[in-house]
Amino acid sequence: EREQCSRVHLDAITSDDDGSVYAFRGHHFLSITGDKFHSDTIESAFKELHSEVDAVFSYEGHLYMIKDSEVFVYKVGEPHTHLEGYPKPLKEELGIEGPVDAAFVCADKHIAHVIKGQTVYDVDLKATPRVPVKEGSITQFKRIDTAM
């Protein structure tokens, strides 16, 4: 039989520009910086968010955290600093109706790939306003919970 831990899923995972990795599940998150591990509740590190996230991606020194139909943005650092003016509606920030399942940005790129059901939306983060510039279907997987 498979190990019990192999049945555990993550709600979201991302890495920042410095290579730190953040993994989220339920009310908790784990961060890995170099060889140091840190575990805490989402509420204690990201007070405005309180708990559970649907998707998280990192872009230009900020963590974009999506919960339901809202986007919260935090500056990477200790402590993480909540950006004024957030949360904003997901539709306003990325041009997509929520909720979403996963999101990621490839290193040194400016396209957020946002997954909702069987559709992936590519959002140009340098554009104003931010809206999907490309849309595609995911047929290989029934469901995607997280991506990095």
Automatic annotation (TrEMBL):
InterPro entries named in the record: Hemopexin-like_dom_sf (IPR036375), Hemopexin-like_repeat (IPR018487)
- In which ranges do the Hemopexin repeats occur? 7-49, 50-97
Record's superkingdom? Eukaryota
Name-wise, this protein is Warm temperature acclimation-related 65kDa protein
**Organism, as annotated:** Ctenopharyngodon idella (Grass carp)
